[in-house]
Amino acid sequence: MIDAHFHCWQLSRADYGWLTPDLTPIYRDVAVADWQQQAEAWGVGGGIVVQAAPTAQETQFLLQQARTNPTVLGVVGWIDMLAPDAAQQLAHCAEQPMLKGLRPMLQDLSDPDWILQPAVQPVLSAMARCGLVFDALIKTVHIPRILALTQAHPDLTVVVDHGAKPVIDTTAMNDWAQAMTQLARETDPAKVVCKMSGLWTEAPAGQPVEVVRPWCEALLTIWGPQRLLWGSDWPVLELAGSYAAWRELSLSVLAHLPEQEKNAVLGGNARRIYRLEG
Prior knowledge:
CATH superfamily: Metal-dependent hydrolases
Shape: globular
Radius of gyration: 17 Å
Oligomer: single chain
Strand content: 5-15%
CATH class: Alpha Beta
């Protein structure tokens, strides 16, 4: 079983602009071994470590973690897609076999159309040629933009992170579900998938994990078990609760599936989409 989305960081690197002392539960150094301790208790034997800072140094830091920790099966890194040497950066990254994807932090950018600007398109085309996955860190407002991206780059593999970070409020659920349904319906099932991760931290503080069950069930309905990847988003998850609680809820949501489909969500899909070895 694979955790398709976790993080590690060192505060002394000082490029995590969002990670401030007021985020007390996670404002600490986090090593791959810390994630392993959480994951192995649930039979999770490997994972994809995902960037948490928009710097080239972050990508190199994560690749170093992958080289020294066999449970890291792949890295989703970051490059400056608007840099004059973006093509060279991408080519260099693509030479690293542990680098499986790239993730611009779209949720933090003021322009929801940022990813559609002409200057970025050659980089996206090069990602598709190199077999790199585009991890889409987005909110509901970005979903139509990601649909447009997939239409412009049909060969690019896209993973929607955290179910597009919906607002965990029943009054907002319908618009999110409609947009996600359209994205799933109008894209190539082999190229565009979604992570069931990061939902609990979108809920109001102090809510039990059960509050996000309807959104988990909606993701399973919308995407189906062949297009859904399970991830923890640990340790960001700890802003809401424990790895154990999230894993228990996730297994409960998937419990009715045939074993083969359950295993696809819990590892097989991540292995296929990120082209993991073994």
